[in-house]
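quick one before i forget lol
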Amino acid sequence: MASKPVGENPLDGSRLAAYSPAMRSKPAHQLRRGWTTGACATAATKAALIALWEGREVAEISITLPKGETPVFALAHCASGDGWAEAGIVKDAGDDPDVTHGALIVARVASSTGGITFHAGKGVGTITRPGLPLAVGEAAINPVPRSLMCAVVEEMAATCGKDANIAITISIPGGEELAAKTWNPRLGIVGGLSVLGTTGVVRPFSCAAWIASIHRGVDVAIASGQTHVAGCTGATSERVVQGLYDLPDYAMLDMGDFAGGLLKYLRRNKVARLTIGGGIGKICKLAQGAMDLHSARSQVDFARLGQWSRELGLADVSTANTALEAYEIAGPALAEHIAARAQQFVTGFLGGGVQVDIVVIDRAGAILARAGSA
């Protein structure tokens, strides 16, 4: 649920659940951008402060984002009471497949004596595991949104002649249910979603958001003392690998097609052991040196695969249409060779010091080959 040129820098990977390979392909039409959860929370905070300190409700509100953009948000909710006020904005993620699109982001501000503090309301998670950019026990409101909200409080306090002593509580009705579709549970964020954003802008179908979630998963695993992590290309391979090694959820990194995103980060942030699991087609591409395993961006080199099969004394598979067909022609020995090649490539790329093993599965989850396993 990355500060990279993408809008969301997820603690949770909230955008991952809705992704599919087709969605990750470049669409034919111009896509509409949206606004991050953090931008919506900041705008709601400003509107709530106007209600608290100026005693008036606004129909819309504008804020300034880190790169100078000044979007205008329509208010969907406003309420106030003795010493508090709140405002809500419906998140518009544009054309991005974000599970929080359409969610109501509510900011409640209350007079305080302790400076500016942040709190998790209903539907916003709390940090319970180290390795994220917030301390254990903190509300899952990312550093950049916190900074934006602090700036709004200080600006409004100066304008209204008030002390900047405000408790900010962010709530997302239904957020706990939405969080089940994200990485939050395995990252140790309990009780709901994370309030995210670096630029304030959601750029649709951004691969960087997924890669950032992989990085945060590595950070959490390392901070939790986990020495063995696994990167898998899909749900079936993840289930098989997790069962094979009895790994905890936070050791399972939803690599998808982004082998490079995982391996480049692990080259700088090493663990003792890495398992990679996937179908024979994607593992074959990895064995041949591909770092992006998506079908639109890398292909199996069948001439090279045919050379491998001939060197093994197997049937020539250079005219096969898919890696699975090649396996069906040449048999298990080819799958074992592909696994071994992938294990050699990954080990070499990581530069040593990491025990690497590969698990190749079929679509039903049966293991076709393993390499480097203890």
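fyi The longest strand covers residues 104-111.
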